[in-house]
Every structure is written in structure tokens, then in C-alpha cells.
Amino acid sequence: MLAPVNVTVTGSRIRGTDVETAQPVFSMDRAAIRATGLTDLGDIVARMPSASTPEVTPQDTLSSSNDAGGRYANLRNLGAVRTLVLVNGRRWTTSLGGLTDLSTIPVSIVERIEVLKDGASSIYGSDAIGGVVNIVTTDRFEGASADVFYGVNGHGDGAQKNGTFTWGRSTERASIILGAGYEDGDELRDSKRSLTRSGYGPRHPDAGFGMGPYGGVVDPVTGQSYVVNHPGGVVGDTSDIANYHPYDVDSNADKYSTARDMTFRAGTKLRNLFGTGRYNLSDNVALRGMAIYDVRDTRSQSAGYPLQSGSGRGDGLGIDPDNAYNPFPGYETSFFRRTVEMPRIVWARSKAMHVDAGAEGTFPWAGHTWNWDVTYAYSETRASRTTTGNIDLLNARKALGPTAVVDGQTVCANAADRAAGCVPWNILAGPGGTPAAVWDYVGSTTTARQTTRTNDVIANLTGGLFDLPAGTLRAAGGFEHRREHGRYVPDPADSAGLTTQLATDPTDGGYIANEAYLEFDVPLLAERPLARELAVNASSRYSHYTAFGGRTNNKYSLRWKPFDDLLLRATYAEGFRAPTVADLYAGSAESFESFLDPCDSAFGAAASDGAVRARCAAAGVPANYRQIDQSGAQIGSATGGQNPVAFRTGANPALKPESSITRTAGLVYSPYFIDGLDLTLDYYKVDISGVITPIVAGDILNFCYVRNDPTWCGRFVRGADGHIAALDESLANLGSLRTEGYDLGLHYRFPETRYGEFTVLSDSTYLKDYTQVSAPGAAPRHLAGYMNGVQGLYRVRSNLSLDWSWRRFGATWTTRYFSGLKDSCWSPDVECNRPTELNALTGVTGVSRKGGVAFHDLQVRWQAPWNGSVRFGVNNVFGRKGPLYYNVSSAGGGSPPYNPAFDVDRYYYIGYQQRF
């Protein structure tokens, strides 16, 4: 069989024992994974202090992204697209948007998770800016194991059911592992708990209401808006304007709380099959392979569509002058009404397949053992999103068209339309007033499909070159040929703008990457006074992409042991992130954005800044202009509101890669006089330039008016009344991003006692700086300590665990701490404890500082004498709930203002594993 050698550690291709401490790597073994009580790798990684909330979360109910429903890793607050995910040191499949879904990797075959908190583009190529998550799978398993799990929230919802079966067999020359898993996670609904029942939380239960379910019309002569009377939910004759009352946009009487119909977190079902195998052809050559197939189904629901005449896009959508239900006969009448009877439901299915096969071996050369490996990997993901609850605009236009009376029945006037199924629609009748036949006719069911494929060939070689006085100079080298291709096909009706679904153009494109790298580990001193070890590591990788050309990235590391129990380390790494297939080739798409217009005369910058007010006036904005939200009401706080008109986002085939510089310095201290104690302290600083970003509405408007950069003023168009009528959010290499901070780890295993073994583990991160510069010449935004959309930029995040084991029993208590964050004020005099402080996120005066929160988890376990094990736990033992952050609502994900990183309830679970 193959001779035993030291394994390659995440962050280096060189095999050896010393390299593993040269870079900051956090490792979580199988026992620690089970102690979390979590069954999804994405959730497990998110518990680490150096991880943060990814761009797409299960809380994004209104997200139109095809990545919705997956679980992603985000290190250093730099985004999931800048976090590279590996499995056994090799790239895993990514989506069109560059995200790697960790839920496609079965937890049951994971031996450990290694997180490199450092840049590693010189070793692995693109995306390794924030860090690397390497999932190491088990390669030997004897017998069989069945594991079942059940967990449920304290409110009785969000139940999690999980079951896996694993079988393995090993001989001297071969091993094989086969398994299957099933996971069923129930949805959480907004209406279930007071925390999420209102769009802006329980402190403002009357805020955030949207368009109502009862018919509203606009007088075609005066422009006055009216809503049909609906006492007790009963609607009278909609064709008589006397049966209407004026619509008051500042009252909730005719509006609707959309949260009552929405899922807070989507329900998910996941099934997977997996197999791994290894066969030793000889003592020096082995074959290996892995195959995984996953199917994930996700269901999310949002409130019925806020239908109005403007929903008809360029052709408009009005009640015909000759329609029997028109209260203004003889006029084309504009209307507005939410179709609450038909909530919008999205069923998303993702099928992911990964297969890799390769060979590895050893050979002697120049007195040293060399290791080689060659791997071919193929990954494919097929995803579909089927959406119901939208409106077929062609059929709606016919159903709202002229009517006639035939055989005493009101019917569509056009005989051909009647023959095709047209049924008159009294859109103004409100809930219960529309027959099922009408919903069948005007309702829309559409399906979009996405496919991504990756072909990857990788070869590596590593070994000792020659001996130096301080040790062996070791080297590694290799190449990679990767072909990425992605395709997105929207439903033709959606793409053509024939439904109320957000219109998206097709995507089809890809690129080829050819890369080669070299790495050297050079020992300089050994076994000298104040130099038990001194060594440097240098690596360089050249990458050539057909999309943008070539680039080289280098990395230099230093490790120094002045004495045996202290290691000092430092790195300097260049990195890059290549534009994704979606960045380069995605078709343009519609998006409804939430933002604060700086020209708003009550809450925008114009309210307090004369220069901004003058620029708005020069652009033709009325002096008393008020921004309106999706319901037509004026915004009521500095959180802004969702625009009633869709904006456009799009790709940019001329994009260049992002570039980064990562610097780290730290120490590992294991004092000889305290056996079992390990202390780590690391400093990090990451600078990214040429950031690929969609320029969101709020930033574009602020660049134009607040920062007085006229180059941005051409990206949007205002109507005569001042409201934003169109806006372009296409991608660009723009601005920069910097993050800086410290990691502290303290692990102590107490001396064994008669009461068992005790271990304390503490891992913390301190964020010193997080600075965004949105465009060249723009003022930097220092956001450390802010709630930034769905991502909390905590100054301090810390996990503290105490583990106890005695004979067959064990228990773990874990405390997860999140420091307080700054948030937007509700208004200058409500929830605004720092009214004079400039909000670095929005550029508006007024900050609301929210306090920190700690969640406590408990798990107890018992090893049964019949080779079984039981674990029972409670996450969030004290039922703590975090503060509400109004910047979360501003992210436009459709969620109430609750931080997606926080627990919503006490969570109970029990698991049982049986080995055979």
C-alpha cells in the first residue's frame, strides 16, 4: 500500500507537519460538528466567528435569485462570492452567480471542516479572497451506520427531520463507502410570531402596509383616487362611484399587511446519494473516485401581486370604457388592487451532480519521497423555478376589456376571446368577489431553468528537492484546466413582459481557465538559539481566462519559532476574483428596490442639507417632493421604501477581475508549563480594488446629489412629479473594500479528574475596520459596527464552549455572542438614540445604536453499550431574541427587520445514531 505521508493542509500543496501552522486555519472535527445540533454545512460554518451572513439567505422570501434556497459561506464579511469552497482540496460546483451551495455536500461523510482565514489565490486561483472552506470527507468506513434527527422550534414550527444511512467496507487494498440522506425542513411563516407578524416588527405594527385587497380607481377627470366601500368585508356595486370613498394613503383602512401571507424562512427538502472508493493498484499507486447526487426542493410564498394599471408596462392596463364594472363608464379607468386570493408561490428544484476520478501515488527521487495526483472532476447543476400567483397580462387585458350581455350573463364582448376562455373580471370586487374561472384565466404559471457545468482537470506534484542545513527544501507545482459554462432560460412569457413576474433576459456563456502554480517551502534556520525554526514559503500562480486574459498572483509566508512552544507567522498574499458567468453574460432583469431618495423633503438629505436641496431643485425636483412607496403612500421614516416601478440590472462583458492584497500576522502559543493550553492571536487586513458590484439605487442617487458626482446622474430618469421612473443598476468594476481585524483563539484541556474531562474552547473575532469606497473619488464609508443590509458588521463576535465527558456521558454548553450594531433611525425623534451622529451607511444624520446579544446552547449525549449514541440539545436555551434592524428591511429581501444570523426561538432537537 501507499507509504504513510503527512497530509496536505488547507492553504498549501506541500505535504508536511510544519506547514499547517504557517497560516491561520480553523478546524472543526466530526464531534464538534455534531455538537452544534445543526444538519446543514452552511449553517455550521455560519456559526464560526470569522463567518458572516451570505448574500442569499433562507430569509429572502422575495429574492428572485436562482440561488435562493441554498446555503452559502461568507468569510470576513467579504461575501460568499469571495469565499472559495473546496472538497478534499478541489473546487466544488458553483452557480451562475459564483455561489457554492454547501447543502449539496452530505454532512454524514464529512470528517472535518478546515477554514483558512487567509488569501490563497496563489494556491487555488480565483475567489479565495475572504478565505477558503475545505470540506474533508472520510475515506475509510467499516460497517454501517444509521443516524436520525428531529428538531423543532419553540413555537412548534420549522421542524427539521433528517436521516442518513452509511455503509462501508475496507480491505488492505481497497475501500468503498456508500450512503444516502434525507432532510426535510418545514417553513417558518411571518404570521406565526409577533416578531415577524409586521413588516417592521412589533414596535411598529401599523407600518409597512402595502396595497390593499379591495378595488381602487383613479378618477380619469380629476385624478382623485377612490376605494370601493367594504364594510365587514362585503362589497356592493362596483360600477357605481357612489359606493366608493376617497383613498387615504396615510391610513391602513384600505391597505394590507403582506407579512400575514409570507414565509419567513422557506421550507426545504433535500435528498442525496453518495459514494466514494479507493483501490491501491500497487504499493505506490492508487485509484480513487467520488460521486454525489442531490435533489433539493424549496418552497417560499409571498403575498398576492400589487396589481395596478402601471403593471401593464408600456401598453398599460386599465378597465375598458365599455366594461360593465367600470365606475366611470366611457373612460379608460386606472385601478389598483392586491390579488390576495392568489399568493405568489415559488417552487424551486435543484439537481446537483458531482463526479471525480483520479489517481495518486508516490515515487522516490533525489533521496526524497514525491507525491503526485491527477484528478478529473465534472459538476453539473440543473435548477428550475416554477412561480404561480402572477398575472397573465394579455388575458388580464382581455378580462378587463369591453363586456356584453349574452343570455342574461355578462361576458367578454369579443367572441373570439370568449371562445379562448375569456371571462370578465371585476377586479374591483375584492376578496371573494372573483370566481375561480377568472383566476384560472388571468393567473400565470411560469418556469425558468438554469444549468451550470464545470469540467476540471487538476494535476499536482510535491516533494523534497534537496537538503539544507536547516532541513529539506520542499516544492509543489501543478496545473489546472477548467471549463465553466452556464445557461439561464427564463419563461418566454416572463421574458417578454407578458406577465407581472419580473422580466429577465436569457443568459448563455462561459469561459476557459488555464492555470499553473509553483510553491516552495525553504527552511532557513533550525535548532538554534531563538530560532528553533525559521522558514519561508513562497508561491505563485498564473491564471489565463478567455474572458479577460492573464494575471499572476504571489504569496509569501514566514514562520518563526524562537522556542518550542511559540510560533510567530506572517503572510502577504495577492488575490483575485474572476467575474462569474452571470457577471459577464447575464441578461438584464427587472428588480424592485428599497432605498431612500436624498431629494425627499422630509427624510432625505435634502431635508437638512441646503446643497443637496439646491441640486435636487436644479434637476427639476419639486421643492416639497415626497418619495412614495409601493402602496402609493409617502415614506414615513428614514428607512425609505420600495419603489413602485421596476429598475433594471444587467451584466457587463467588459468586466475585469477584482484584485486583493491580504496581510496577516500572528502567533501560536502552547506553553510547556500549562499542558493542554493553546493560544492563537492573528491580525488580518484585506484590501480589494476594482470591486464588481451592481450600483444600487440608493448609492446612485447619493453619488449624484449628496456627493455631487454628475457622472451618476445619467443612470436614472425622474418623472415630472419628481419620482424615479427608471434606473440602471448594471455591474461595474468600481470602488474598493477594506476589512481589518483580529482573531483570538484559546483552547484548554483541563487535567483529567475523577469527575471527567473538561475542555474550554474560545474563538473570537474583533473587526477594527470595514471601509467601502463606492467609486473613485467618493468619500469612504466606515461601516464597522453597522447593520449593513442582511449582514451584521459586528465589532466583536465570539463563541465560548465548555465540554465535559465522563465514561459514556458528555455535555457541551456553548455561548454565541454578537456585539451591538448601529442602525438607521426610525425617524429623528423615534428610535434614534444618536440623532446628531452621521449615519455612515446612508449619509443621513441620525443613528440608532442597538445592544449586543448572546445565545446559549446545551447538548447532552450518551454512548449506549449496544454501539448506539443519543444526543439531545436545546439551542438558544433562554429563548433570546435579537434587536430589530431596519436596515434589514431596506435590503429588499421581503423579510421583517430581523437579523438572519440570529435565532428566532428556542430550538429543541434529538438525534440517535446506531453503528452496525
From TrEMBL:
Keyword line: Cell outer membrane, Membrane, Receptor, TonB box, Transmembrane, Transmembrane beta strand, Transport
Question: What is the native source organism of this protein?
Answer: Luteibacter yeojuensis
Region of interest called Disordered, as start-end residue ranges on this chain: 49-68
Question: Cross-referenced PANTHER family, in alphabetical order?
Answer: PTHR47234, TONB-DEPENDENT RECEPTOR (PTHR47234:SF2)
Protein name according to UniProt: TonB-dependent receptor
Recorded topology in the membrane: Multi-pass membrane protein
Q: Which residues form the signal peptide?
A: none
Instruction: Say if the entry is tagged with keyword Membrane.
Output: yes
Q: Which family does it belong to?
A: Belongs to the TonB-dependent receptor family.
The residues covered by the TonB-dependent receptor-like beta-barrel domain are 315-877
InterPro entries in alphabetical order: Beta-barrel_TonB, Beta-barrel_TonB_sf, Plug_dom, Plug_dom_sf, TonB-dep_rcpt-like
Q: Name one GO cellular component term.
A: cell outer membrane
| Source superkingdom | Bacteria
**In this protein, which residues make up the domain named TonB-dependent receptor plug?**
20-132
Q: Where in the cell is it found?
A: Cell outer membrane
Compositional bias (Polar residues): 50-67
